[in-house]
Amino acid sequence: MSGAAPNSQPEEAPGGGASRGIPPRGGAPRGIPPRGIPLRGNDWSPLDGRTPAEPPSISVIVAHYNQQAELDRTLAALSRQTHPADRTEVIVVDDGSIEPPRVPPGVRVLRQDDRGFRLAAARNLGAGSAGGDILCFLDADTAPEPGYLDALTRLPALSPDVVAVGLRRHSDFTGLSVDAPVEIEAPPRELPSPEWLQRAYADSLNLLVSDDRSYRFIIGAVIACSRVLFEEVGGFDETFTEYGGEDWEWAHRAWTAGAVFAHVPAAVAWHDGPEWAGREGDTAGLAQKNIETLALAARIPVAGSRPSAIRLGGDVMRGTSTEPGSGAMQGTPARVPTTDVLVSIHTAPSLAALVICVDTVLQAIPGAIVRVPAAFTAALASDDRIGPLERAVSSRLTVEVPVAVRFDVPELRAAVERVTVEQLGSLELTDGSRIALLTSQRALSREARWGRHDLFPHLSATCSARPLADEPGLAAYFGGWG
């Protein structure tokens, strides 16, 4: 199942047919707030007890590769859903199986060439061809219980910012008929589920309490989101060409784009076989997991997801690589540096003043990328964390500094930590006039989407940063006596 190469032209396999009356369509007009309920922070509790006025239109995208029996079971389970059939389309995306998958009438099949592991590309291909307001992603070996779609899509249908993750349980289906009801036959055959994941859902109140690292609890085989959010976030990163990681990377981008995370334990789907970490004889499992962890560390540079000192990453592909007419998510791929914190210093009276400002910033935030006026970039070019203001950078948090100052290092570090821990929309540091403005990209994205400025807290705090003379003494600063 390969990575950044364009998708092959999709084709309808034998047995494919109409998509239950849900036609593919383009995205919503930009600048118009989405339909639904805007939420504050990650608090989806205002949606408790509420249901959509009408059942949402759902596109279920099932990724498949050489698993006909498992696919048969999953499609049989989807045919028994309580969600109205005329509001549901099922799209099987085949990642180059030896034999085209066989599907019942009414199920669409899209195929791409076998160029290695391309789960991300398969999901993008299905999403680009889907017509529903809500996108549900399933794997061929994960069969949902009858109420799965209704339970999983309720929150995204009410608020398009929600990324909902269902409860993936594990069972041994050996010898079981593919059309047997999984909600009856799977529990007696249940296999252990990952304890770390169960504990995370319990500790976070089903992700009601989430943070910048909660992407680790979003499992791609059992997620649903609105088309509006998926198109704003962009598709799955097709440069992932090994098993695992593409769902966590997408979830992190969704979080940064203002997503609300929610775990829905009532949305149960059964995976055929044990969780990967529990497979006996999987001696290469840890090595494979390490490859995934390094790939994610280069793309998700938040504390706890990257090394403490080693700097990984650099240019990271964003968007998907597509061919016109392919039916996949359209968009031009772009390579941009990614960092946790981006600091922009807009003016400085001299190179010496800028050096002191940048040095105090990087003491407080060593992993930051710092942008400075173009006139000074050549003098600081030896540090690749420093570049011109025009440089495009993707970040979780931005710090805008109107005029170079000498920051109090612990104070600036604490301000960054406060925005993160308290999930603020912004924090203005001031001494009567603005010294710096720290802004959460997550808050900025969501509030821009809704045309609101009250979905996250926006606070100010006094700052003891010192103004700099037009030409401060660098020897005194370096030596510690001035």
In short:
The chain is an alpha/beta fold and 482 residues long. 26% of the residues lie in helices and 24% in strands.
Walk me through the topology.
Blueprint: E1 58-64, H1 68-78, E2 88-94, E3 107-111, H2 119-129, E4 134-139, E5 142-144, H3 148-158, E6 162-171, H4 182-185, E7 190-191, H5 195-203, E8 222-226, H6 227-233, H7 246-256, E9 260-272, H8 285-299, E10 315-318, E11 334-347, H9 351-364, E12 369-372, H10 374-377, E13 386-388, E14 394-403, E15 405-406, H11 409-421, E16 426-430, E17 434-440, H12 441-450, E18 458-462, E19 466-467, H13 474-479
Parallel strand pairs: 1-2, 1-4, 2-3, 6-9, 11-12, 11-14, 12-13, 16-18
Antiparallel strand pairs: 4-8, 5-9, 6-7, 6-8, 10-11, 14-17, 15-19, 16-17
Helix pairs in contact: 9-11
User: What is the overall shape?
Assistant: elongated
The helix/strand class is alpha/beta
The CATH architecture term of the largest domain is: Alpha-Beta Complex
The count of helical stretches stands at: 13
What radius of gyration results from the CA coordinates? 24 Å
Helix content: 25-40%
Q: Termini separation (Å)? A: 61 Å
CATH class label of the largest domain? Alpha Beta
Strand content: 15-25%
Average pLDDT rating: 87
Largest sheet, if any?
A: 9 strands, mixed
How many runs of DSSP E, i.e. beta strands?
Answer: 19
CATH topology of the largest domain: Spore Coat Polysaccharide Biosynthesis Protein SpsA, Chain A
- Could you name the ranges where pLDDT drops below 50 across 5 or more consecutive residues? 1-21, 315-333
Number of domains: 2
CATH superfamily of the largest domain: Spore Coat Polysaccharide Biosynthesis Protein SpsA, Chain A
Region (Disordered): 1-55
Pathway: Cell wall biogenesis; cell wall polysaccharide biosynthesis
Domain Galactosyltransferase C-terminal: 214-265
Domain Glycosyltransferase 2-like: 59-174
